[in-house]
Amino acid sequence: MSTARYNRQIILKGFGEEAQQKLLRSKVLVIGAGGLGCPALQYLAAAGIGHVGIVDDDTISLSNLHRQILFTTADIGKLKVEIAAKRLQEMNPQIGIVRHPIRLQKNNILDILSRYDYILDGTDNFESRYLINDACALLNKPLIFAAVSGFEGQLALFNVPDQFTPGTNYRDIFPIPPHRDEVPNCAENGVIGVLPGILGTMAAAETIKLIAKIGLPLTNKILSYNLLTQEQYTVSITHGDGYTLPKTVDEFLNMDYQDTSEGPQGYTEIDVAELVKLQQLESTILIDVRERHEVPVLDKQIFIQVPMSEFGTFLGKEFYQKQVVLICQHGVRSVAAAEAMQERYGDTKKIYSLKGGIIKWRDHFLKS
Amino acid sequence: MEIEIISFGQITEFINNQKIEVDGIADTNAFKQYLENRFPALKDIKYKLALNKNIVQQNTEITNRATIAIMPPFSGG
Hints:
The complex is a heterodimer of chains A (368) and B (77).
Chain A: H1 7-10, H2 16-25, E1 27-31, H3 37-47, E2 51-55, H4 80-91, E3 96-100, H5 106-113, E4 118-121, H6 126-139, E5 143-149, E6 152-158, H7 186-189, H8 194-212, E7 221-226, E8 231-236, H9 249-253, E9 268-270, H10 272-279, E10 284-288, E11 303-305, H11 311-315, E12 323-327, H12 333-345, E13 350-354, H13 357-360, H14 362-367
Parallel strand pairs in A: 1-2, 1-4, 2-3, 4-5, 9-13, 10-11, 10-12, 12-13
Antiparallel strand pairs in A: 5-6, 6-7, 7-8
Helix pairs in contact in A: 3-4, 3-8, 5-6
Chain B: E1 2-7, E2 18-21, H1 28-38, E3 48-51, E4 54-55, E5 66-71
Parallel strand pairs in B: 1-5
Antiparallel strand pairs in B: 1-2, 3-4, 3-5
């Protein structure tokens, strides 16, 4: 196969034909075709990674487009993996692209990860990040980790040994996942499009360096990046001991990754059709847990406002309704509220959280 | 003793980058105690300290002019 396409990097001193061949022979899985995944995928595919896998079970929505730059307005509603794979294949028909339109869970992740040499984590939640970390550690797969929050990002390489330290993993920095309402995510907190663009591109660069064996990859280091100051701060990671990592497949399958789709929980996530049904029951209370400044504003006669910042006070009160439906903008805070209610009221009330929140069911809320 | 504090992410909302002059803080455990007393919001979140650009895994002695970074986990993408 001709490598003329890669001429400009092949002629680069310190790269060359040999490095290019390494890229062409490698298999990289990008998990999450979002703000981080899109730019990472573009550069990995363009650079000639021979075999690129994409995992994402989500569809494209309007609010994705300011940062998920593989997608256009006409793509709204379509599967991210389909559109991403199509665009990348048009850009580079010489490479293989595999679509995985699924959500990774304990029961499928090991099988998929084992088909690849390098894993790039561009997901947007802690459940996935700990699941991916532990699976990569178990399989001893190099993991390129990128994440953003506000105007800052973090970048790291895990399970890659250097001459002094065997490969470290995410739990060496953060042994235990934070609680759901402890750290705001992009959907709740907002993100400027260019930031995951930078971090996703840096993650692609680290992947390429690692595969081509050039430069000094961020092995056993975590880099913090600040967009507002353009400052970087790099910290060395050593092994910690305050955590358990599954050592066997059985141990892995017994871990709790708070998969809402698995295991018992004290509340139920519902869609808008179920919300409407519950709404018709007399003993149902609908609670909007968003802060008072958030829009769209809902009918306060129907949706009682109890912002998360005031939720603790509300929990002390008694009320007669038997069904409680909690809603928020994206269905993340409402889950935290549902967990808190479950702890307080136990089985005396049935607790529901609207999955995807007001944004997902925007049409319903704006017409009513 | 002078310690430089560098904070990241949501922690910057209540701890600015600053140099502090303190006595009686000999190690990272004592420093953690000091931080959580002075900034109680820290008690409710996960964070990791890095002393002079090395992740703190066990109690470590702090010397004059040390730099301590306070890092929260990020998950966004």
